[in-house]
Protein 1
Amino acid sequence: MARFVLRRLLLLIPFLFLISVVSFAVIQLPPGNFVDTYVHNLELQGGSVNAGQRASVEAQYGLDKPVYVQYGLWVGHIAHGDFGNSFLYDRPVVDILKERVPRTVGIALAAMLLTWLIAVPIGIYSALRQYSIWDHLFTFISFVGLAVPGFLLALVLMYVVYEKTGWLVTGMFSPEYRAAPWSVAKFVDMMKNLWLPLMVLAVTSAAGVVRVLRASLLDEIKKQYVTTARSKGMPEWKLVMRYPVRIAINPLISTIGWMLPALVGGEVVVSKVLNIPTTGPVLLESILSQDMYLIGALVMILSALTVVGTLASDVLLAVLDPRIRYE
Amino acid sequence: MNRKIRRLVAPGVVVALAVGFVVVRQTTGDDKPVEVKAANEGPRSARGFIEPPALAEKVAAGKLPPIDQRLPEQPFVVGPGTLIQNEYMDWQDGKYGGTFKGAATFPSGWLNIAGGATILRSPSQSTEVSAPNIVSAFSHSDDYKTFKFTIRKGLRWSDGIPLTTEDVRFPFEDMYQDKFVQTPWPTELYTQGNANLGPAKLKIVDQYNFELGFSRPYGSFIADLNSWIPYYNDLFKPAHYLKQFHQKYAKPASLAGLVKSTRRANWVQLLTYKDVLHWDVGDPRALGMPTLNAWVLTKSTENRSVYDRNPYFWHVDKSGHQLPYVDQVVIDRVVDTDALTNAVLGGQVSVASGGEVSLNKMPVYKQNAERSKFRVFTTKSFNNPLVVYLNQDYQYQDPGNTWQKLMADPAHRFGKAIEAAIDPEGISKSVYFGLYSKPGPEWQGHDPGLAKQLLDEVGMNRTDSKGFRLGPDGKPFVFRLTHSAGSPDFDPVAELLKEQLGQVGINVQIERIEGTLFDQRKAANQIMASMAWNDGPAWASGMSEDFLPASKGPWSPATWTYFTSNGKEGRKPPAHLQKFYELYTARKAFPPESPDGKKAYEDLMTWFRQNYVFIPTAGVRVTPNIVDARLRNVQKEGSPYELDTYINAEAMWFADE
């Protein structure tokens, strides 16, 4: 097992190198560079830039050099753990990630936990009481949940809450707490603002989980070992929880691989609608404004996490399901 | 498909606007600020000033000199009509305190925090009064070639260091003309704004007096000295601060350390990085840079910028307050304009205007005004409504093609036809609650019959099977109208233009692209016709010049390249465009609001109207402004400019309520 993990980790190195080349190439694909964005914003605000000033800004950002030189500089710095400076935010990329990633992971983990808390019991209940009135109801709701996009739900909820209570969710914290140090009051304020995005994220993803769990559990329950165990007089509740549910949960475990980058990448659309400063909106914004070091770092990290996450879910599956072997 | 959408869009817009119209109409009720007498706040200093309570503690602790020592010998006195003309604002001396809350989508935050620290000062967006502001005396030679300045004695940077001519010498000698640094000259410091005529020559007389000389008459420089666009930082830079980043003055070891800790490649990049212009005043790199502004950046994190009052700000009111009245400005970052609108609706923003608001959201602003305690009123704007630009240079390398033939027509019948086909009142009614009306009587106006006749005359009298006119060469003709994503009104106006021009038989193809891509197409001369807004209302005062051929929308980018490169590149202007450059250059000689300047401007505008390089789609822009209900010294309803540039932010104050 250790060898298996080690080999997979070593493979990560050439893979990341490939990702760096591809992501840098992709960043260069659209015409222009960050200076275009800078000049455009300046002009929108009423300023103007002459040819000399433009060249000076390009030199300032190192964009006057050939692409391969820019790539060399970038990779050289990354090797030293330095992801460069974000043009847009005028601060080191590492600092931006330090601020946003914990927040993003926290929200995503909480949302995931909530998703499973909602979805797993419902999935199990639906499968065990197939075609009961509750099963039909949950099935109906989860189909609706699958069909309604998260941002729409966010918008509708935001509107309803504002209309009914006058409370407008405009970010993770209310303005008076944004600069305040952590305290009980600040935490309460955060929960007041955060329950809505968490619910939106949980409800929309719970729908899918319910469907998957119900289907795989239904497959399992019909198997002979269940009938055997039941005929030997094993209590129904203990039986279901100990065997079929453990197997039915495998599809969820295998998705952890994609969940890891999603945890860090953040939910772009919902975050945008609810003005939550996660990494999602930053990624979008950096791409739109061609803030190349920031995009580069995010793409690299997300790719690496995908690879690591896939490895983690492989290992977890092997641990939980004795039928799965390495090699 | 397109047609179907259009049919759906039009009635939808009409219904929405009808509702909005009613709401807007109700807003025109008078919201006159209540008369509040400024309370007598604290004891007066020997010179008669009142120490701001926010600074009292620091002064008492000896960390800050008392107010008498912080203010110049003769501070700039702000009163009725100084910052905004009397007819547009009822001035009241205010009281200290409060926080401006703001929201911004871009990291540098509230750009126009800068506001009033210009070299000369005229109310609002005018340039005529030219009262000495940073300087205490200003004069010019009769031929507008030499300008003399005396710096206000005792005026200090925000760190307490006095402003002297060293702060003028430093940018000129150690930045613009330094062989290593080579900071590019700002356009305004070139004679007549033209790089080919060479930059200003600086003569330092003594610690407070200096002169600028130009090779040709450059009266319009006076407008630049009044303007928040070039601002003070082309001419004055905090030398004592920037010297630590300059090889000539800094110790090599400490300079190397600073280069490393700021992650710059070399000291030139470090100096450029630390010389923050007012556009980027909210960037983290501006922390620590002394300014002459009313507020100084004291905190800049990823999601919030905080500006505190400049203890050395050199404006006072007549009752002895040091401006600004408001102690602090806090800008929270939002992810996009919708989040910004939410912040406004939730009452989390003290002032919102310009690009932060839009007329089509008027109904929701009104709905929430009472609950969130803000006030909404409309003003005219710094910007024109959308304008259609016809690029005279599109495919100019091939003079025989259809577009070039249409543009070269001495009678400009194609442009005239476009103008006659556009129905500005229709656009105003459909998109702008009817508030924009139609362009002035100097334009011929909506006349589809005339449009058809003119198009017939230029040879576009045959049609294809769909009823669209063929080009004079008998081939299909497509009028490609390019625009960037812009504000919410771009799409409906583009659709209406397509419909209106379609009615006289012009096949319009709308092309909507990203803003930066638009700029690149513009630079590459790949745009046939475009739609954009510009700063028209601010042209007359010389504040803005975005009528230029390659500005907001390109109407002759190749001849502009020819002009700026002194004939080395681009297209030699054909006769009718050459006339524009003559008029433009002639105007530069005079202050824009002098009698000569006004005449030169009139000539220029006449040329524009006769040559149809751009065509208005509606009359005068009307725009919403949102302010905290307690805020005083705010422009009145119907003022000529919105609060967007916050030219008088320093004078706003919060009344108790």
Protein 2
Amino acid sequence: MDLNKKFTPETWPDHPERATLEAKNKFVGFWLFLGGETILFATLFATYIALKNSGPSGFGFSTQELYELPLVFVMTMLLLTSSLTSVFAMYHLRNYNFKKMQLWLAITAFLGLGFLMLEVYEFTHYVKLGFTYNNSAFSSAFYTLVGTHGFHVAVGLVWITLLIFRNAKRGLNLYNATKYYTFSLYWHFIDVVWVFIFTVVYLMGVIG
Amino acid sequence: MSSVAQKKGFGATLWDWLTTVDHKKIGILYFLGGGFFFVVGGIEAMLIRWQLHKPNNDFVSAGLFNDLITMHGTTMIFLAAMPILFGFMNAIVPLQIGARDVAFPFINSLGFWMFFFGGLFLNLSWFFQQVPDAGWTSYASLSIASEGHGVDFYAIGLQIAGGGTLMAGINFLVTIINMRAPGMTYMRMPLFTWTTFVASAMILFAFPPLTVGLFFLTFDRMFGGNFFDHTMGGNTIIWEHIFWIFGHPEVYILILPAFGIFSEIFSTFSRKRLFGYPSMVFATVLIGFLGFMVWAHHMFTVGLGPTANAIFAVATMAIAVPTGVKIFNWLLTMWGGSIRVTTPMLYALGFIPSFVMGGVTGVMQGAAPLDYQLHDSYFIVAHFHYVIVGGVVLGILAATHYWWPKMFGTLLDEALGKVTFWFFFIGFHMTFLIQHWLGFWGMPRRVWTFMDGQGWNSANLISTIGAFLMAIGVIVLVYNVIITSVKNVKVANDPWGDGRTLEWAIESPPIYYNFPATPLVRGLDTVWIEKMEGNETGLTPAEPIKDIHMPNGSIIPILMSFGLFIAGFGAMFRTEESWGLPVLIFGLLWTFVAMAARSLQDDTGYYVKKDEILRDLKRKGGQK
């Protein structure tokens, strides 16, 4: 593949993310990887549901008392919006508009960073209340499920930051288009997992 | 890069193997790595059998016995059977579908090195004298209570190796989906490719639960988590569920490729198209699907209740149906065929009765009420060795003889091959058949020793003698490998003379780009079709000869895996040694830097020029 091949919006293929065999392989492989990730999170969810509210005798925490929906609502909004901005970025990827794509991806990263900082705040807040990782089976399951999601967000942030800076000077080609595209797939996946966390952990925790 | 044969120094050869991304070389690496661990696991088995050959034996201590059974099971499943099968998948599947490499050559290499370092990590526990001792299933209450770092070696070692397996699974899926040659429709794929495909899909969905389970175990043991500790509200049954949601599909991940191997062998040496090919494919997919629905049959005695037990009992028995379909198709493939009993065929013939016996005892245990009687007895040990040794290991040995010329360019000695078979086959039945009765007579599994006067003495002695016969068989095989490698008589494309699939239409071993021109696939068993129509080469090219795109080798996979290996030690000794935490951070940082290096460089491969391909063809003697 020739990295230096120059495109115009007219010659840029409709699906740059899977225009070559290597790109097609990455595209399919990444979808399959997300299938495996789904099972990984399903296992974490199942464990969380099984261990919810359960601790040593005289355990003082429950989902109703612990969770604060307003904070979680803000986090949800940040992450959902970041998914939308990544869609804008992919729109510009298809249109061969590199600068706008980078801009929208940078906005995506900032929203993701905001989410992550709120999550760190949330966790420190719980720890201050005495709800530490070692405190109970409930806390272990909670931190592992939500923390694994948070870890995925952090990985996504490092990934997109590297992509943005690595390609800043040289623009789009058929080699890095797949990388940008798989990042957006990843980001949507993280978003969908969060929708489930919001529902199963927080909403069902406060209401159920 | 030139393909002209040159004498290379030792250093250059070593560097070539450490950095290779060629699926054929990685296949050989998997095969050798798995073979090494197979011998290690085999020695452990011999020690176990020697300990049990007479009552009140004190050859090994009770603690060491637990170490041995745990490491024997873990090593054989994760570090021997799977990698050897991966070796064949790597070496053969791209050839069978007419591809030049797998979809992700770099990740292929990474997967191998992660398996290798994970396996090394696990086995280094012997040198630290803190060996996993909670059984290969590592049930939580036992594994949480296990002292020392034994179970940590298990959890971290398998975590690293399991990551490699997951990568290999995704790689094969994408390879088979995207890289089939023109005309190679799904329903024209050789059955070994099909079973690899289904087994890879099962890896994709079975290994993430293992990953999570091992993390829970690691967190509980090393970071104060409480998943399995009931005094803190945890639940030890969660481990059993997670482990078997992984563990049951795992046995089908092992047996399906073996089914594929036997399908190829039956068809080749009966000189007939595989009987009922579409039903074979359907049965493979169905087994893959049902394999995820039966995990709780390992837990009948846990007390999940009659409803759950009944559902899982029925699902378990249902798997016998597609398996039976396969057995009859193999028999009918031979029916009316022109059969040649070569060594691989001998293994295939031995496989059918052996595996059927293992299958039947499986259905017996599927009946939940009977399972209450059989649970944790030697009957179970007999059953799973009948399916794993009688199915998977016979498959591996058959494939070793069958594909040896394609992987190494020379045939294994047929006479010695048959000697191996008879020692192994008789030894296998002698070892494990009697264990069914030992189970009925009340001998529990995983016991260190037994007392005199319970009627178990002679049965155990017979079992031990059988195990040593199997060991003799393996030693003969190793001898066979050594003498044929020394003689190194080169063979032609199709040394068996009856090859049906694409790998037999190219030289043994194939040149690094496999096919000078991508072949056109004209039907199931395309090479056979071509030969029947008088095309000596067995191939119709689908394109003119042109430049071929090939991936670059890389040292990064081994570096990445090594970083994880270092980090594993850091994590383990984090609390008691001051160097623990820095080493953990250093290892992870090392891996991260290697990943970044991979990510930041543009590795787009290179081209083999048309002139060079034509030169290679001329050198081989004018193959068109």
